[in-house]
Structures are given as C-alpha cells and as structure tokens.
Amino acid sequence: MKPAPSVLALSGGVGGAKLALGLQRVLPPGGLAVLVNTGDDFTHLGLRICPDLDTVLYTLAGVVHPKQGWGRDAETFGFMDELRRQGGPDWFLLGDRDLVLHIERTRRLAAGERLTQLTADFARRFGVPTLLLPMADSEVATLLDTDAGALEFQHYFVRLRCEPRVRGLAFAGAAQARPPEELATVLRSAALRAIIVAPSNPFLSIDPMLAVPGMRAALRAARVPVVAVSPLIGGRAVKGPTAKIMGELGLAADTASIARHYAGLIDGLVVDEADADEARALGLPFTVTRTLMRDDADRERVARAALHLAARLADATSVPTAAASTGRSP
Amino acid sequence: MKPAPSVLALSGGVGGAKLALGLQRVLPPGGLAVLVNTGDDFTHLGLRICPDLDTVLYTLAGVVHPKQGWGRDAETFGFMDELRRQGGPDWFLLGDRDLVLHIERTRRLAAGERLTQLTADFARRFGVPTLLLPMADSEVATLLDTDAGALEFQHYFVRLRCEPRVRGLAFAGAAQARPPEELATVLRSAALRAIIVAPSNPFLSIDPMLAVPGMRAALRAARVPVVAVSPLIGGRAVKGPTAKIMGELGLAADTASIARHYAGLIDGLVVDEADADEARALGLPFTVTRTLMRDDADRERVARAALHLAARLADATSVPTAAASTGRSP
Description:
The structure is a homodimer. Chain A contains 13 helices and 14 strands.
C-alpha cells in the first residue's frame, strides 16, 4: 500500500510548483499531496487545458522548462507554427509535447472520467510519487472584473499580460463545485502533519480553492497546523501580478495584508529575510528564511522552513502561537 | 461568383490525389470538384481524422510529403515522440503540423458544423481552388471481414499493414448517409462535362462512396460521361492492396475485373500501355496512356487522357460508345 501523505500543499502554477518540488524532495516518496488551483483552466481549440495542474506535474516530474517554470523542456512548436500559418489563435502557446496531455485529458473527460482520476494517472505516467489533486472535478472559472471589461483568466493573464486594472474577482461554477473525495481521504488521514499554502498568488491561485464550498472547513477540520509561505519579498512578487493586484484592490503589498488575507485559515507564516521586521509586528507565529527559489537547494530550504514551523506549531497544540516564539518579536 | 466545376473526380487517398492534382493543373481555377472517400475516417485519441480528405487537401495545396504522398512536408513529430514516451498508442502517425486540422475539425464537428462546410473552409485556408466534398456529412466506417476477424479500416490498413486476408467489406453507417447537398449542386450544374473515377482502390476507396444511397443514381443523372482510370498496371497496383484484395475476393487482378466492377457506372476506361491488349477485348470505350504518376507531367498527362476520353464520349452522345472507337479494338 502507498503511504498516506503527511503534508498537503495548496498550489497555483510556477511559484507554488517550486515549493511543491522542494517538499517532494525533503519528504519520503508518497509523503506529499498537492491541491492545485483549477480556476485557470479553460477550453481552447476544443481542448481542456489545466495550466496549473500541468505546471505542477511537469515540475514534480523534472521535465518543466527550466527557465520559464512552465511548459515542457526540449519542447517543439510545429503545431503552433502551423496554427499561426493557418490563421488560428496564437496567443496561447501550446507545445507539441505538451499537447499530449491536453488531447488525452479532453478525450477522457468527454468519456466521463473525473479530472482527479486522470490527473492521478498522468502523475503515475510521469513517475511522480506525489498525489496531485485538482481542487474540484467540475469546472470553476476565475473571472476578472477589470477596466477592460470582464475577462476570463487566460485572456487577462496571457493574452493581455495582466495589463488591465483589476476591480474584483469571481469564481464561476465554484458554488456548484465540491472538493474531490480523494482530498477528504488525505485530510482525514492520521498520517497528515501539516498543510502548507505555497507562495502562489493569494487572489488568483489560492482564493479559487477557498471559494469551493466546504474547502476552508475541511482544511481546518484536519486539525493540523496550516502554514503559508508569503508570496511577497520586500513588498514585491517574485513573478506575476500579486503586488499589482493588491494595489488595484486597495491593499498595501506587504506581509500584513497577506496575513490578514489568510486570517482564519493559517496558523503561521514563512517570510523572507527582507520582511522579518514586518512579520514581528503581526502577532502571528512566523519563521524567516530566504524565500526566493532559484535552485533545488532553495526549494528544499523553504520547504524545510515551512515544515519546521508547522512542526513547532503542532508540538505546542495547547498554546499554539507560543510554539513559534523563536521567530516572533520579543 | 466562382465558376461552377466542369469536372467531378471521385478519389480516395494517395493515388487518387495525384490524379486530382493533375486535373487541377490542367483545368482553370474552380474547374474541379473532388468527391472524397470518408470510409477511412476514424476517431483516434478523441480526434476526428479524415485521412483521404487530408491527403487530397495537402496534395492539391502542394504541401504533401513528396515521398510518402500523404501527411505534411517539413513535418515534425514532437507530439508522437511524447505520446510514445507516455505509453500512448503509436501505430497511427500524427505529425505536429497535421494535428492542426484534426483538432480544428474535431472542435467544429462537436460545435455542430457539417464536415462539408469545414472541409471547404480548410481548402480556402490552404489556397486550394478546387471544391473538396466529403462523400457524406455523417460518419461511414469501412469494416473489413478478415481472417484476423472484423477490422476497422485503419487497423487493417495501418496497424496491420493490410496483412490479413479480406473475405468481405461492409460500410457501417452508409445506409443512413446522404450525399451532401453541395454535390447535388455540382451534378445539376450545366457546367459539368465529365466525371472521372480516380485510380484509387475500387473496393476500399470508391465502393464506400457508391454505398451511400442515391450516389450512383445521382452520378448517372448528371448525364455526363463517367470515365475511370484503372488502378492496375499489368495486373499490379502501383501502391496499396488493390491486387491483393482482388485475389482474396476471388477476382483476377486485371482490367476486365475493373471494368466489370464499375459496370453500370462508367462509360469508358483509361488504361496503362501495359494493359492495351486486355482493354481491346472489353467492348468498352477506352484510351491508353502511361498511368504511373511520378511527377506533375505524368499527372497532367493522365488527367488529359481521362478528359479527352470523356470529351470524345460526350461528342457522340447519340452513339456514345462509338466516340471512343479510336481506342477500341478494330
């Protein structure tokens, strides 16, 4: 029998996948489950595309494009060249190797298979020891209310390169969605020790998961420490529009805003060295490390920091916040 | 307004496409319509694939693989490599450029578009001046009864390389199929001068079209000469299993068998120089040329031979068979 995961990570795409890889590297095989955002998913050219699931899969399988952080390494673009030549939409890049998953997923979903089932099968196929879980089997679509009108996620994110100003977000289909039963199994397992919220965009990547009815309650009901890794370093995002969106939504792009956003969900926060002073003022258990993840040593360090903070919080369940006192302001 | 086609060709894949290209080259733009076999079509990896339509399209567009006679020139195989690596079925080769048509066709068919409409659009996209017509909009599947059991066409043709012995053929869905309305328009047009049956496999490529109810009658009702180009040269097929299947079905692989097979449909036959003596004994108008088509000069020569025979037959409508007397035995 496979060992039950001791850690559940919540992840979006590139940044979250890097931490997931760090966790996979420091945990024994099968010790990690990753709950992945599917609010970015869309149907393009008739194909069902799940960018965050694929980014996490490719990253954990060691076949992700090393510079981009998404898509395949050693990729070719014959399909895309030809699509462009024939006048097809060319704003969303689809590599020839990458197409295998999209075509296979589209076929299997049409045949009635659940996204959770086929995602687990894809992970097996790539030799990934981690359990990959979409946040729901039914479709949820992140919609952005912007100064350029209502936009589906990929149109905002890829086609318009996050340029429109965001006024609000909605998650279409979330009310009808349910967490997959496989997640409940992980959360109910006695093996579970920690839930780690990856440094993904809280608004675009983590909130869609939390918008699924029952998700917050299910995470809390696991009764293990929930630790987030802040996506900001000195008030800036490593990649992507986190800080830009926070400004547009009237929030300061700082650690306090992140802590406030996750209030009620998390028990502790991992922050970058640049944000140590800010973190001391929060009244929330925290730990400090360099959170920029450029190589596997970085990914493992941040993973260990998050796991250690969770372990400290768990060791002091009677007085949970005291456990992280070493990281708190005196 | 586009000129109405003066010639309708009936074609399967590689061999038929070569003659269609010859006809396209000797006729004015828009002067040709090609009715294409769709009995080879199948759904693979969830994609609707129409091998003969695509072969004719690529050939007429000048982008076919010059050696193979099917598939794209300058093709790449990143998708196929990756599919194989992931353990997917690799017996049917799908190039990266080629995938554009399959994916687009699958999407548009699912959206309710007719195959005839989207095929015409594909031809426009590739700058092909010829009207491409699938034999029907609904699905028809050529099934082979063989000593290896019942086989779908592509499994017989590609996966098993035509090795099983054929005992019989059936065209599933043919009884429910109808020729597309666009074909009726071509056949009713006063511009139509000739119908040319390409040197495709009579059993695998032409018979599926003739199995569509009303097809034979519609072709005859056009009241223009119907001329076939024999697929045999000295009792052998240029390519493919025509002669092998004829033997397995208890037919001699000769010109007389071809003429008998098309009896009631054709008014004349184009045969290779090697078969001139045989043709003289048939009591059917015929003409002789070298029917092997290796280059465009060959393709144009065979096209002209077929058109000249049809013109001679048309010039003598009162005594149709006398028109071809120059080609008949004295």
